[in-house]
Specification:
This protein has four helices and nine strands; from the N terminus they run αββββαααβββββ. The protein is an alpha+beta fold. The chain has a single domain, classed as paralog of FGE (formylglycine-generating enzyme) (Alpha-Beta Complex). Strands 7-6-5-8 form a four-stranded mixed beta sheet. A three-stranded antiparallel beta sheet has the order 1-4-9. The structure holds calcium ion. Calcium ion (CA) binds next to loops.
Length: about 290
């Protein structure tokens, strides 16, 4: 089943201030000149990330800090007073903070997943014929993997799945309020793999976001570590939210090759049962940052 929901979304112009950044526990004060600050912070980030990334090949360092999580653009249904509050799971918008972490620059590929299978004997994705990876699929994202498969890969790799809060911060590229990883502009064919019928494409094909992360929008949905709860945003802790303690579904983020543009937004949330294996669900890994 393709985990999509039919949402009607209308764009409302929103600001795009840069989120607060720090590499440790305390956020810096907000600036009144976000555009200038963004450049200065990028320079500082690159210096900090340079050493950090060297120790984690293939991963990007994401500074800790505060950001406004959730959907800031309006939907036609926002004014309706129905219950349950369908289609509002990405609200209220709240300021949360996450500690610094690393995240994979790209979705995990079939070739990388094959190394895991070879080392552990773990089951293969269902589309590998006779359990073998076809050479032409090596650079495609590993899809048809359940949440448990993805979590097992991450553990084997010395990593973990990102929390939903980490994923959204990474997707926004340290900015707040923007609709897509690249800003407000609606996606074009040259931006991301979406709204096609013939499956995912090679990872890293499109331009990365501000942090250097590829395919945060589209290609494969990405498993997050959290259980899904549509009402969670209103009661989540302000620091490092981990999701509900239990649930029926795990969180998915980012949209996929099979989805239309409105599912590719930074704030959009989706879900699937942990055992689900779909041709449009993959993952990337994260790793906590520890000061040495
Ligand atoms: Ca993706």
């Amino acid at each position: 089943m393709i985990p999509s929901r039919d949402r009607e979304r209308a764009v409302v112009a929103s600001g795009n201030p840069v989120a607060k950044i720090d590499a440790g526990r305390r956020p810096r004060a907000r600036t009144s000149r976000p555009l200038l600050c963004r450049g200065a912070r990028l320079a500082a980030l690159l210096v900090l990330a340079g050493a950090a990334q060297a120790a984690e090949p293939g991963m990007v360092f994401v500074p800790g800090g505060e950001y406004r999580r959730g959907r800031s653009h309006a939907l036609p249904d926002d004014g309706l007073k129905w219950f349950p509050a369908l289609l509002k799971d990405d609200r209220p918008v709240r300021t949360i903070r996450v500690d610094a972490f690393y995240v994979d620059a790209r979705e995990v590929t079939n070739a990388e997943y094959a190394s895991f299978v070879k080392a552990t004997g773990h089951r293969t994705p269902v589309h590998w014929r006779a359990g073998r990876l076809a050479p032409e699929q090596e650079k495609l994202p590993a899809v048809n993997v359940s949440w448990d498969d993805a979590a097992a890969y991450a553990k084997w790799a010395g990593k973990r799945l990102p929390t939903e809060a980490e994923w959204e911060r990474a997707c926004r590229g340290l900015a707040e309020g923007q609709k897509y990883p690249w800003g407000e502009r609606e996606p074009a064919e040259s931006d991301a793999r979406f709204d096609v019928l013939d499956g995912p494409c090679e990872v890293g094909k499109f331009a990365p976001n501000y942090l250097g992360l590829y395919d945060m929008a589209g290609n494969a949905w990405e498993w997050c570590s959290d259980w899904y709860d549509r009402d969670y945003y209103g009661r989540a802790p302000e620091e490092n939210p981990q999701g509900p303690a239990s649930g029926l579904y795990r969180v998915l983020r980012g949209g996929s090759w099979a989805d239309i543009a409105k599912y590719l937004t930074c704030a959009n949330r989706s879900w699937a049962r942990p055992a689900e294996r779909s041709p449009n669900i993959g993952f990337r890994c994260a790793k906590s940052f520890s000061k040495r």
